[in-house]
Amino acid sequence: MKNTVLIIAFACLTGCTSIRLAIPDTFRQQATMLHVKGARGNKMSFGQFTTSRIKRGIHLSYPGWGGRGFFLENLLWNKVGIQKAETVTKEKARFRYALSDGNNSVEIYADEKEVTKKLEYEVINGKSPFSGFEQLQQYKYVFSALISVDTTQESKNWELLMTNIYDRKAENDKNPFTYIKPEDNGLATNGVDTLFIRALSIKSTALDNGKTGKLPFKLLSGYEISTSGGVVAIVDMIDRNIWFYNELDATEKLNISAIGTAILARKVHDAKW
Q1: Which residues of the chain have pLDDT under 50?
Q2: Maximum pairwise Cα distance, the chain
Q3: CA end-to-end span of the chain
Q4: How high is the pLDDT of residue 217?
Q5: DSSP for 117-160, written as a single string
Q6: Which of 46, 81, 153, 255 is most deeply buried (CB count within 10 A of its CB)?
Q7: What digits encode the pLDDT tens for the residues 1-25?
Q8: How far apart are CA 105 and CA 153, in angstroms?
Q9: Confidence (pLDDT) at 66
Q10: How far is CA 81 from CA 5, 65, 120, in A?
Q11: Residue 76, phi then psi, degrees to nearest 5
Q12: d(C-alpha 7, C-alpha 14), whole Å
């Protein structure tokens, strides 16, 4: 979690004692929190829920040069001591596991894909650590998962999809310092019911003096899971908890647990934040 580490380090240097996701009081009073043990490992447990060992495929990363050449442009750039190039990084991973509540179980099959395209400007023969500059051009992250119920259950299979997409040209973005925002959102559906998944970010934290301090930029802190009627669960990525609305039935809790554990089990996304 490269960006997270940097942010936490910065916050601690400014006197931070804790960084936590704020759960709204109205939801907290009607919900139950379960801490997820092993959330960053290969097996999780919380309350009556347990996963099997998470079986992972090969985590692949393909850093390399892009398809565009800048031969003519570099004839001009080189005169002022600068070299321009395009880099494209591709990364993908997949995993599967089973989740049980002690009575019923589901199988989760998940897949992550990410593509990042940047322009790099490098000072020729530069000795300074700031001798280069990267400009984000495109970013595409797609996370999908199939949540398959066992044959003894009457409920339907669920499909989960979360995306985070940026295209400088399509958005006509003039900001040269645009960075990848960790705001992947999505939904899960079984063809009849739909759950909406929204990223939650914080930009303030508690200080030793009891006041609130500001982080330099937003930190991804969790995900809100809701229906058209309101929030039904919150996945806390910082303290690794899942909050369940108390009125959920056993089947709903099992399905939401599958979504929450799938989010916590990611590796491509986790490596970035």
Answers
A1: 1-17, 273
A2: 71
A3: 4
A4: 67
A5: EEEEEEETT--STT-EEEEEEEEEEEEEEEEEEPTT--SPPEEE
A6: 255
A7: 334 444 444 444 344 446 778 888 9
A8: 9
A9: 64
A10: 34, 20, 14
A11: -85, -45
A12: 11
